[in-house]
Write a structure and sequence with these properties.
Elements lengths: L16 E6 L3 E5 L6 H11 L4 E7 L2 E6 L8 H20 L2 E7 L7 E6 L11 E7 L3 E5 L3 H14 L5 E7 L2 E6 L9 H19 L2 E7 L10 E6 L7 E7 L3 E5 L3 H14 L4 E9 L2 E8 L11 H18 L2 E7 L4 E5 L2 E5 L3 E6 L16
Amino acid sequence: MFLKRSPSNFSSVHPFVCVGLTRSDELQIINLPSQLIEPLKQVVYQFWTKGIQNESYENGVLEIKMAGKPLFATDLQSVMVKVLLQNIIATLHRFQYVYTVNVNLKSTADSLYFRYDPNVPVNGAAQFCTISLNRTDRLQVICAPEAIVNMIRGVIQTVWSHGKIQEEKDHHGSWEFRISGNPWHSWKEESVMARYLILKILEAMLEQGWHNIAAIDISRRATEKSVLIFQQREPRRCPIMCLGLTDAEKFLLINMPTQLVDLFKQILLSRWPKGIREESVMNLSFGSVRQFMLKGWPWNGGLSNDAYHIRSFLCNIIEAFAGQGWRVLIAGDVSAKYIDQDKGSDHTDVHSFWFIYEPNTTQQPTAPNGEKS
């Protein structure tokens, strides 16, 4: 978790609320004010139609044990738990609690944290929708207007290098696209294209007024990727880039402006003591992607200091990029490397970062490195 120091009107009178998905079937809400107990219980009863086994509220903690196994759910229950989560976020927002961050504490499902914001209108009619990345090739659009479904279809057809949607259908109330290839379980060029596809979907959603507020992991199934939550606000047109973390030691710089590529390399050389093993360029349909292979094992550091050094590096990169007008939009899990070989399989799964350009001035960034006109 990366923290930014900034002025705050936070008061302990309104502590953070935590929504946690535990075990395979429990919803645990901590620090919940008593006036929110009934509204949230009603949300669970309304949107988890398989029913509730039991519930309790003690010392500010509401625990609800749901029927079924929502954290291992497939098909209908998988859609239901995402609709439920979206409506929990919307309900807390109506009571002036806004989503702030999600944290994975036990390498299972994320816990969500909400802070009280007195500037949010009480009972405001904020609209939310969800995009879910499932199995190896499915993208589900949940609770979104038809115009958004059509827009996402167009982005997939334009951006995805395979250029094909194998199938699309109504899937238990969501609209599901089955994309050619295996974008969420891929490696090499296909894994880069998967991250770029998400980048272009984020840009297109923003232009339609749907701002991404979270990328959440809510399933314990290995093939389920991040769930992207969007809130409707004013339309904006902002470039987005991706810093992909892949394999055990590689960075992918996707849609990144030239000056930031140079800045990235400069900080990498100063903050990663083992150095760079190889620097290369991947030429893809949308342009060039710079790849840095590090010496050492930053994502699988074990007992070495690699993990500490790479976290220090990422802190410096986030700060340096922010100084250039690029802030972190989301960190999400969209593509796991998967190699199926005669001797077995290799499966690595690391989050990537998407940055959005929001400068304090009207200065525009230069074109991303190697981007085609």
